[in-house]
Amino acid sequence: MSEEDRPGRHLALRGPRYSGYDIGYGKPPAQHRFKKGQSGNPRGRPKGARNRLPALHEQRLKSIVMQEAYREISVREGEKTISVPIATAVVRALAVSAAKGNNWAAQIFMQMIKVIEDENKELHWSYFSTVLDYKDAWYKELRRREQLGIAGPEPLPHPDDLVLDARTGAVAVRGPLIEREKDWWLLADMIKSEYRKIIAGHERQLKRNPDHPDSVALLKKTDELKHDISRLEEVYLDSVTERVVRSRTNSSGEIEFVDQISVLKLIKTA
Question: How many CB atoms lie within 10 A of CB 240?
Fold first, then answer.
């Protein structure tokens, strides 16, 4: 582009009006420039302008995709219309297409299943391995304490309460996971003890007087209490309860609760 064709060439002037200030392309006259300390946009930033472009650390497209994936739409299912997330509708359509013989859909669908199963398997065995390492580390620590004759805080969960099945990779927790959950075992022990007292009382009455007028009701109530005790024992194992009781018994022989208020509320409503 020649000097004569340059945009704004005819404005590149000097004179008393401009006090020697060159004006032209990118150089507005001095009287039209923004004044120092005065905003060039007195009405402020337009709504939404701040978030028009994502920051470098943002992944806004992922959020948009996930929002759309779980947005519900109406689809026909037989004689009725139901609402399902778009992701469900897409996967269902893919599965139906695969079942009808579409090879492309079948390949995609089977690949999806394989990826999910592989991820679930890896996560499952990773959890199993983590629990196994936890048990091993705590058994070593408990043996060290025993050899040195030192005491320490009881591990939660206790390694004895983590039951592993190496054949299936299953992990079962049979004890409290946090300190507050010990209150549940103590409360269950109180309930079982009270039920056993009631059962013993009923059995003494029936033994003294087999023809007791309320014998049928006493027998029924006794059976119900025994059933409740058996159900409690399935969850709150006696072996775990004994250890919890030992850990919560103070020097005066009293059992301490972490959340006494909640325990009292449960007792009142029982």
Answer: 20
Whole-number Å distance between alpha carbons of 223 and 234:
17
Using CB atoms within 10 Å of the CB of residue 128, give its burial: 0 to 12 exposed, 13 to 18 middle, 19+ buried.
middle
The rounded mean pLDDT for the chain is: 84
The position carrying tokens 């005790």 is 229
Please say whether the beta carbons of 75 and 89 come within 8 A: yes
Residue 190 is inside which H or E element, if any? helix 182-208
Residues 70-128: pLDDT tens digits? 999 998 888 899 999 999 999 999 999 999 999 999 999 999 999 999 999 999 999 99
CA atoms within 13 A on the CB side of 60: 6
pTM score of the predicted model: 0.60
Element (H, E) at 266: helix 260-269
Q: Is 54 exposed, middle or buried (0-12, 13-18, 19+ CB in 10 A)?
A: exposed
Q: How far apart are CA 100 and CA 98, in angstroms?
A: 5
Q: Angle at the Cα of 246 (from 262 to 194), degrees rounded to 5?
A: 55
Summarised one tens digit per residue, pLDDT across range 228-259 is 999 999 999 999 999 999 989 988 888 888 88
Residue 170 pairs with which residues in a beta bridge?
Answer: 165
Q: How many angstroms separate the CA atoms of 238 and 230, rounded?
A: 11
